[in-house]
Amino acid sequence: MAYQYQYIQTISTIFILSGLVFGVLVAVWKIRNMRYRLKRITSVISQVAFRTQENLPRIQMDTKDEIGDIARAFNELAESLENHAHQEKEYKQAMRDHSWLKTQVLDVTSSCQGIQDINQLAQTLVNKITPLVNAQYAVLYVRDGQADSQRLFKAGTYGYDAEEMQVKTIEFGEGLVGQSALENKAIELSHVPDHYIQVGSGLGHAKPAELTIMPISHEGHVLGVLELATFLSYSPLQKEFLQEILRDIGTVMNSIYIHMQVSNLLKESQTLTEELQSQSEELQLQQEELRSINEKLEDQYKNAETKAKELEKAKGELERNAVQIEQASRYKSEFLANMSHELRTPLNSLLILAQILAENKDKNLTPRQVEFATTILKSGNNLLNLINDILDLSKIESGKMEIVISKVAIRDMVSYAKQHFQPIALQKGLDFKVTLSDGVPEEIETDEQRLQQILTNLLSNACKFTKQGSVQVDISMKQTDLEAASIVFAVKDTGIGISPEKQEIIFDAFQQADGTTSRKFGGTGLGLSISREMANLLGGYIHVDSEEGVGSTFTLYLPLEHVAESVDQTFAHLEVAATASGSPEIVAVTEEDEGLKGKKALVVDDDMRNIFALTAALEERKMQVIFAENGREGIQALEEHADVDIVLMDIMMPEMDGYEAIEKIRSNPDWQQLPIIALTAKAMKYDREKCMEAGVSDYISKPVNMEQLMSLMRVWLYG
User: Fold this and answer.
1) CA angle in degrees (0–180, nearest 5) for 113-118-119
2) For the chain, what is the mean pLDDT?
3) What is the pTM of this model?
């Protein structure tokens, strides 16, 4: 037992001593660890005194005891101090920026005090503002003369190169400067092209990085525009400075403009005062003269009353004469339209029958007789051209010719000239050439039909009056500082030429260079007169340069864009020449016309000559023909002949005209699909639309071109 007790006591002592040693070691380790962490905290805290509040150190400790809490609290305090320091720095910078902004604005506005000249103010402003925003180039444009002017002129410059920039005045809306003034809105360019502007010095030059254009306004009224260029981008403070200083400058400029206006008014007032003083002296002298003149005026007043009554009477006479002239013009137009109808009606049958004889289908005419028929056909066509020329001239003189403006391709005019006149030139052994100069636009705005008619008249004359040599058309541009650009059509020939004393009268109606009865060349003398008047209607003119025995050059000048003018529509019923110019060729019966064989046609016309001519032409093509002399008889003929395939309807007829007859035919369901072709010798304005509204299938004017008529008939019979 004693041994066991001693053993247990020894073991207990060992365990107690071991526990004490372990406890001491643990305590020592804890104490040393705590001292280490406290030393780290002390080291970090001591570093705060040597650092700025913008960048404080942090304690890297994540323990969950009291020391860890101290570390976290310190880190939060450091972050709060840094935020506070950052806010304080921003506030100080904002105060410095605000102070700089107000100081510079005050400095610039102070330098403008006392300046009453707008040019001096502009130069002072660009000298002050440009360095403050680190710009290298500046131009200040101000309103021209008055505050309400719509033009800007260059008043102040900085780094300005006079050789590169020639602009001195700018209209509102012109370029970027004018657009900024027009919209009262700033324009910024951040990518300036290489050759847009060069800022230079004695050492060299380079393009700027940014270009800023800012309007200067007062109460929404633009007074000037400031243009700046810089190698660097503007800071927000500089942009704010520009916006604020320009607002103040607008007030200063407005006061200067007001002062200038007051000064001008004062000068004018002083001048007027001096003039009034001198005039007052003159008036005193004139008063005495007026007293004597007054007595004479009383007598003259009585005479004036008498003359006023006479003038009133004369005015009434003039008004009556004006009405009579207007009626005469209307009667003339109506007479020419009716004359067109009366001449074309017999001419229609003449041309149709002459064409039938010239075709000589039955081979029963001698060559001499065929030649006679061909001559009659050509003479009839010449008469038709004369009728059209007279009507064209009448419409031009009365101001009633209609101009249809469209885009006209110049290449089409070149093709037109070559296609129509190269064969004529080759037949006469002439050289024909059309040249197109550089710089001529592809299109112009004009009336294509009238332009073709003018060129046709000029080229026809050139070919007719040239026996040998050449005919040439040169198309080029003419542009001067005094007038707008125009296109030039020059028709040159090596013909007989025109003497100087006759170069003007050839443009008169029915006048030619050789007006004798023994002249070598035919013609009515209307072509040049019509051409000149048409050129005037198109906004251009014709010039002639000629030497007798050498040749002539007729030059047509036309604007590139037609300026629309108001057209008097008083006489909307004016005759419109619907037939094509030129003499149609004789067209024989073709195989296509065989398709008309056996078809039945109804011809409705009040002129038996036309009925006879059309019947002969249609029967030549093996068609069956019945006729009626007015619309009422035409309807009766349709009721009696249900197998009619097509109707040829004249418009102007007694009892029932063509319009009424067509409407009655279309009102019958059985005849709604029946082809009806309107034939008229009086091709009045808008008659085609009127015929279409009445229900015709197609429309053709007299004298009838048989090829065109047969083509229309084939279309409507088989289309």
Assistant:
1) 110
2) 77
3) 0.36
